[in-house]
Amino acid sequence: MYIQQVVEMFYLTLVAIYIVFIISFIYVTSRGKPSKMATDGGEEEHRGMDKAEKTWFAILITIAIIGNALLLSPLIPSANMALWTKAEPMQTYTITIEDYQFHLPEKPMRVAAGVPVEFVVLSNDVTYGFGVFREDGSLVFQMQVVPGYENKIVWIFDEPGVYTIRSTEYSGPEHSSMVVYDAIVVEEGG
Ligand SMILES: [Cu+2]
User: Which residues have their alpha-adjacent CB atom under 5 A from ion ligand 1?
Assistant: First the structure.
């Protein structure tokens, strides 16, 4: 479990509790209650919030807005990382593709979970795809690799494991052979 997930879970729990609280407040205050001005019959009910309840309701909504603004604030590290700033890569790997072959700087490329890593992928001939897959074959991410450009992606792996690289764009007759098993090893990290 990484710190960002802990902070997010804490935030979502707070939001859930608050929503339940506001719904209860609305429910309780909207039930009919005997009017204070009830005349001799005493059967008159008045529905909805009275003035003090409306004030409390406005305070609740204000707290929700301010609390939300604070929790998504860039002052909080996880919000900062998730919403406000680009992750600064701690590591960069430059991969070249030529003649339907991936040329990795080292095999496997070792990265730590939870740490931003940058992949720069260059093509010396045609357009390829750079796709990273989990052991079960599901896709983590992919990008197009266009010749003449520095194709870059910054990724934070959240699960340790061994990952496979495949070309995800049809590039020619040898496209289907473009696979590197065990290309990336993600280790338990901070
Ligand atoms: Cu291909």
Answer: 128, 167, 171, 175, 178
135-151: average pLDDT: 96
d(CA 22, CA 14): 12
Between CA 104 and CA 121 the distance in angstroms is 10
Instruction: Tell whether pTM > 0.85.
Output: no
DSSP code at position 147:
T
Residues contacting residue 78 through CB under 8 Å, at least 6 positions apart: 3, 4, 7, 8
Give the start-to-end residue ranges of the domains of the chain: 3-84, 91-187
C-alpha 60 – ligand 1 centre gap (Å):
56
pLDDT at position 44 is 57
Helix (H, G, I), strand (E, B) or coil at 183: strand
Ligand 1 centroid to Cα of residue 154, in Å, is: 21
C-alpha pair distances (Å), 133 with each of 13, 25, 53, 158: 32, 48, 55, 13
> For residues 97 and 40, what is the distance between their CA atoms, to the nearest angstrom?
90
Yes or no: is domain 91-187 CATH 2.60.40.420?
Answer: yes
